[in-house]
Amino acid sequence: MSGLRIHIREKRFDGAPVLGECTIDAAPGEFIALVGPSGSGKSTLLSLVAGLDADYDGDITWNGAPLSAVGESPAHMGMMFQEPRLMPWLNALDNVRLAEAERVAREPGYQSNAPRLLEEVGLGEAQHVWPNHLSGGMQRRVALARAFVVEPQLLLMDEPFVSLDMPTGNRLRRSLLRLCERQRPLVLFVTHDLREALALADRVLFFGDTPARVLLDHPVEGARGKDLESAEVASAQQVLLARYPQLLSGILDPSQVQTYDEDTA
Ligand SMILES: Nc1ncnc2c1ncn2[C@@H]1O[C@H](COP(=O)(O)OP(=O)(O)OP(=O)(O)O)[C@@H](O)[C@H]1O
């Protein structure tokens, strides 16, 4: 199949199973949010996909070929984490350019996308500013530009907008969706905030149980692209939690899932 296939049979840490049987198929261009209680293995799953941890039982493929390790990956991969992880000795432009280094080496005559990406995230005027002179929100913008500068086919994001105030977070989410619209990467986005998942994703995967697995694969309708405090997001959240009251605690009654599918069929 084309796109990403994740099939985890088991992932253990120190002998204890953390992830159980889990199959996720995702098509190019899809935006998938991963939501679940703390410790349910969301970040672990991202690190397996990123190739940062190869110690698991399962297969992760991209267009049918193993997605085994960063650097050998058949998909251009971008990543963004909770911390912007900027190099303090490089200005905003050079931080973004750093991600292009491999491409510059590989493609003679390659024209840097970094200035355009910084324009797109609203930092056209701040290209030569050092990270310690940028606000937290601006630093995340640089990290967002850096994630997209490689034109990733697969973008892994682990709570990239956590602990930002609402307007700053909303602006960053709008920038992210604009960039996704243009480049169409497949995104796996970990968040604790159900509203953020509903405002960004095409599908939300809910994790839970021990060892963790996907409890529910929920298609999002109506809330995508809206601000977190919008009526559309509030309503999507209310409908979901009315039907599955303990979902965010990682508990789901399987009989409810059938009812939901029948309702939406
Ligand atoms: N390097 C590690 N060594 C041992 N145990 C680990 C390691 N990394 C994660 N774990 C354990 O694996 C489980 C899943 O952790 P993980 O960070 O993937 O969960 P999470 O759903 O992302 O949590 P959170 O939402 O709090 O970030 C937890 O019990 C955690 O303590």
The total number of structural domains is 2
Mean pLDDT: 89
> How much β-strand is present in the residues?
15-25%
Strand order in the sheet with the most strands:
7-8-9-4-10-11
Radius of gyration (Å): 19 Å
* Sheet of most strands: 6 strands, mixed
CATH topology of the largest domain, by name, is Rossmann fold
Which range best describes the helical content: under 10%, 10-25%, 25-40%, 40-55%, 55-70% or over 70%?
Answer: 25-40%
Backbone shape: globular
Protein name: Sulfate-thiosulfate ABC transporter ATP-binding protein
Pfam family, one: ABC_tran
Keywords: ATP-binding, Nucleotide-binding, Transport
Organism: Salinisphaera shabanensis E1L3A
